[in-house]
Specification:
The protein is α+β, with helices and mostly antiparallel strands. It has three domains: 243 residues, alpha-galactosidase from lactobacil brevis (Beta-galactosidase, Chain A, domain 5), CATH 2.70.98.60; 281 residues, TIM Barrel (Alpha-Beta Barrel); 93 residues, Immunoglobulin-like (Sandwich), CATH 2.60.40. 21% of the residues lie in helices and 30% in strands. It has twelve helices and 40 strands. Strands 6, 7, 8, 9, 12, 13, 15, 16, 17, 21 and 22 form an eleven-stranded antiparallel β-sheet that branches. A hairpin with a 5-residue loop joins strand 38 and strand 39.
Length: 691
């Protein structure tokens, strides 16, 4: 059993020590602040408070400028008893003159150079691409797109000690094994600077950011989460447990893990209408699916050819060419079919040609100087206005008018349709955010105030509609972070969902989220032209379909298929797997944590081609999932983790009910061989200790 701790002390202006089993991993100033670009990292006579699960440092920061006084209240809160700490920081101007804050990093570490570094770049359909190096080189991870995981994922992993599979040599060899992970809890532009030699700071990005504090005013920085463990895998498990127990909002309904059908990829906004929704909802009910979600295409002008992106924001308008009976009748038709209605909305977005833009100019986000977007990422935003380069394509939630519009639009949609599931999308890159100064924010903190406003709106929405399932989506997986995780029930991982890609993204996201906070559909029937996801569904075999479904059952489960047109044998397999999810898998998703047993598969035929992963429950049960991808061969054997040598286990193949009896010691020596004849390419194995 390892013991991780953070301790503050008052010497040298306030310092923080991070230890693992009494080994000091970092001993450094606890924070880094900049006042008008001048760095400040220590207090004058800091006051240390708290012990155990809460450590605090507060007092006046030193060297902030002649005649100024800046108070800093810093804390490290242990989360859910795990080796996970949330670092928080609030700054208050206690002087007589205004102050401009240009950096506010709640986390500062000095680890030394003997660490391997791990991160992920992220783009549409290319989320969680691994990025590896070592602490002997500078590494800057950040977002400048205005969305937390468009550009890079807000996570840094540092690890030292032996490399799995051999000594290997290199940074960290010979040192005690240890791992640190750093995760900014913010949905906008964040940064992690890991400078050569191991000086690490993290927080809101200082790029194009500043906040002016008048005397008496304060600002709270987005928090940063630190996990300390013997390995990155152990850190991921600890963070999953902390997020599941203390972070994600949980209700009885969301914990029931309803299985979802969504119309989007097979129909998009071109082939959907109320008959399509009703027909799919009826089949969904027949196979046991519990929610039918209407995606984009339901709103806007009464035109069957209208393009959804151009009219975003006009949520009070219904496209009666597609849905002539209206939204209330649409929701009722879904309930009449025997399932619960869900609705998609991109509540923050504003299309260039929307009526909202003209009706409520006071709520629009603008970059007044028309600054060009940062070139470090590919701009995703569509339907902007070439005649007005200042228009950012979204409602500024730093403004009261923006918050009211978004809250009332979502709430009205829920009450009109009876929706129990809301898919909240965001296909906009806000860049550095709104620079208007008539919204209640300054020219440099518009993006921060937007996300503070979004969090407040989502909390109020959940309070108004406590039986709601709230799913966050952003061009698929381009806004996944621990900031938003406090306000939504689950994150959609990525727009593409072909199995190889899905598993790569799953291997990555388990560093941040538990299964209960994750949703991704099984391989969809894509209507559009996206070659990696295209399949001739008339030739998809039962085994191929089983593998598609099983890969998407290791978290919240959903499909986007033309259900009335699916072959009878595939409908039967869907029914079997929905039932299997509800009977056997749900407890693992609700209460379990993910542990990969192999390296990750990599898009394009690379990486591990026979990946396996397990979900562990606190009672000792394990769900083991094994896949064979193109180019792979059946593994002989698979090696489950964390089993007790003196315990006897029953291993049940959930496909055919076959049961084997084997001891933990035998599994440790011999592993577990997946059974079944060719062409089986996936297995779900339930490992249960004998009581």
């Amino acid at each position: 059993m390892t013991d991780a701790m953070v301790r503050a002390r008052s010497d040298d202006g306030g310092r923080l020590a991070v230890t693992l089993d009494d080994t000091i991993l970092s001993d450094a100033a606890a924070l880094l602040v900049e006042v008008d670009r001048r760095p400040v990292d220590h207090w004058v006579d800091p006051r240390i408070g708290g012990e155990g699960d809460l450590v605090t440092i507060e007092g006046t920061l030193a060297d902030t400028g002649e005649g100024t006084s800046l108070h800093a209240a810093w804390s490290a809160r242990r989360v859910a008893g795990q080796p996970v700490w949330e670092f928080a920081l609030t700054l208050r101007n206690e002087g007589e003159h205004p102050l401009t804050i240009t950096r506010m990093d709640p986390l500062s570490l000095v680890t030394g150079p003997a660490w391997r570094t791990n991160g992920f770049t992220s783009a549409w359909g290319d989320e969680f691409r691994p990025l590896q190096g070592h602490a002997g080189h500078h590494l800057v991870l950040e977002s400048r797109s205005g969305r937390s995981s468009h550009g890079m994922i807000p996570w840094l992993g540092l690890e030292r000690g032996p490399v799995r599979g051999g000594s290997g040599g290199g940074p960290g060899e010979g040192e005690p094994a240890a791992a640190l992970t750093v995760a900014p809890a913010y949905s906008g532009n964040w940064h992690i600077h890991a400078m050569a030699g191991g000086h690490i700071t993290a927080g809101i990005s200082p790029w194009q950011f500043w906040v002016d504090l008048a005397p008496g005013e304060s600002v709270t920085a987005p928090s940063v989460v630190l996990t300390v463990a013997p390995s990155l895998d152990a850190a991921a498990v600890a963070l999953q447990r902390a997020v599941a127990a203390d972070w994600l909002p949980r209700t009885e309904f969301t914990d029931s893990l309803p299985v979802e059908w969504n119309h989007w990829w097979p129909y998009e906004d071109q082939e959907v209408d109320e008959q399509v929704i009703a027909a799919n909802a009826r089949v969904a009910a027949e196979v046991g699916i519990e929610v039918a979600t209407v995606d984009a295409g339901w709103f806007g002008a009464a035109d069957p050819t209208s393009y959804w992106q151009e009219q975003r924001g006009d949520w009070s308008s219904v496209n009666t060419a597609r849905f002539p009976s209206g939204l209330e009748a649409l929701g009722q038709s879904i309930r009449d079919a025997g399932v619960l209605p869900g609705m998609w909305i991109e509540a923050e977005a504003v299309g260039a040609n929307s009526l909202l833009r003209a009706a409520h100019p006071e709520a629009m986000a603008h970059s007044v100087e028309g600054r060009r977007a940062d070139p470090s990422y590919r701009v995703q935003t569509e339907s902007l206005d070439p005649a007005d380069p200042t228009f950012l394509g979204y409602v500024c939630l730093g403004s009261p008018a923006g918050r009211e519009h978004v809250l009332e639009s979502m709430s009205t949609l829920i009450t009109t349709t009876g929706a129990r599931w809301i898919k909240l999308d965001f296909n906009i890159d806000p860049d550095a955010g709104c620079t208007r100064t008539d919204h209640g924010h300054g020219a440099g903190d518009g993006l921060l105030r937007h996300y503070e406003g979004l969090y407040a709106v989502l909390d109020e929405l959940r309070a108004r509609h406590p039986d709601l399932m709230l799913e966050s989506c952003s061009s698929g997986g381009l806004r996944i972070d621990l900031g938003l995780a406090r306000h939504v029930h689950a994150f959609f991982l990525s727009d593409p969902d072909y199995t190889e890609h899905h598993l790569q993204v799953l291997w990555g996201v388990r560093n941040l989220l538990p299964p209960v906070g994750i949703l991704h559909w099984s391989w969809s029937q894509w209507r559009g032209d996206y070659p990696p996801a295209w399949r001739d569904w008339s030739t998809v075999t039962v085994d191929e379909f089983d593998t598609m479904l099983r890969a998407a059952m290791l978290h919240r489960f959903g499909v986007s298929l033309r259900l009335p047109e699916l072959r009878a044998e595939l409908i039967d397999r869907l029914r079997v797997h929905v039932d299997l999810f509800q009977r056997e898998v749900e407890p693992f998703v609700r209460d379990g944590v993910l542990q990969p047993l192999t390296a990750s598969p990599v898009r394009g035929g690379w990486g591990e081609r026979a990946p396996s992963i397990q979900i562990d429950l606190p009672d000792g049960r394990v769900l083991l999932a094994v896949f064979v991808l193109d180019g792979g061969v059946r593994p002989h054997p698979v090696w489950p983790r964390g089993l007790e040598p003196d315990t006897v286990y029953f291993v049940t193949d959930l496909a055919d009910g076959d049961v084997r009896r084997i001891s933990g010691a035998e599994l440790d020596v011999e592993g577990l061989v997946p059974l079944g004849d060719e062409p089986v390419t996936s297995w779900l194995l339930l490992i249960t200790p004998r009581r």
